[in-house]
Design brief:
Elements (H helix, E strand, L loop, with lengths): L2 H11 L7 E3 L23 H21 L8 E3 L5 H6 L7 E4 L2 E5 L10 H34 L17 H10 L6
Parallel strand pairs: 1-2
Antiparallel strand pairs: 3-4
Length: 184
């Protein structure tokens, strides 16, 4: 079960990504493809049945996994009874996706007993975290340069429209004081 693994990624990369589960059809339904002595359930035939299994997953796996790290449970969503998500993205039995700006940026591929290569997803998210950290550092440096220039009486510089600082609130407030529009 990937719940503790995903909870660990969420804890480590919370500033880089949002995480969610999407509950799809049962991988090893007792009435279709039972897996030995492992607890399994009949394939849901109604949305109410699928929702009940998704709630059970949330209570038994998602919530305890988040609690391992002192975090809230990862939200659980449910595929349609027509299995639209599964059919479109081949998520059965398990896949990890990273979406950026509404587009799929990464899809895990099945490779081992965990269902995906943990090193690969960790590397992908780590790179994203590194990009975010470097961007925050560049913005902090720019804010400090602008503050120093402002102290010397130089013209104040404006941040480009819509620029997000990503800085701690106190630093962001200080930076905002020096990043007023040029025509102000």
């Amino acid at each position: 079960m990937a719940a503790p693994i995903l909870a660990a990624y969420r804890h480590r990369y919370a500033e880089v990504a949002d995480f969610a589960y999407v509950y799809v059809e049962e991988a090893h339904a007792s009435d279709e493809w039972p897996l030995g002595d492992v607890e399994s359930f009949a394939q849901p035939r109604t949305m109410d049945e699928r929702l009940a299994l998704a709630r059970r997953f949330a209570e038994e796996y998602a919530a305890p996994a988040g609690a391992l790290f002192g975090d809230a449970p990862i939200p659980v969503y449910v595929d349609t009874m027509a299995n639209e998500l599964e059919r479109r993205y081949a998520v059965w039995p398990e896949r990890l996706f990273v979406l950026e700006d509404g587009q799929v940026a990464y899809v895990s591929q099945p490779c081992n007993e965990y269902g995906f290569d943990r090193r690969e997803i960790d590397t992908f998210l780590s790179r994203r975290a590194g990009h975010a950290e470097r961007r925050r550092e560049r913005l902090a440096e720019a804010a400090m340069r602008t503050e120093a220039e402002g102290a010397d009486g130089a013209k104040k510089q404006a941040l480009p429209a819509g620029e997000e600082t990503g800085l701690e609130p106190a630093v962001a407030a200080a930076a905002a004081a020096w990043h007023e529009p040029e025509n102000a």
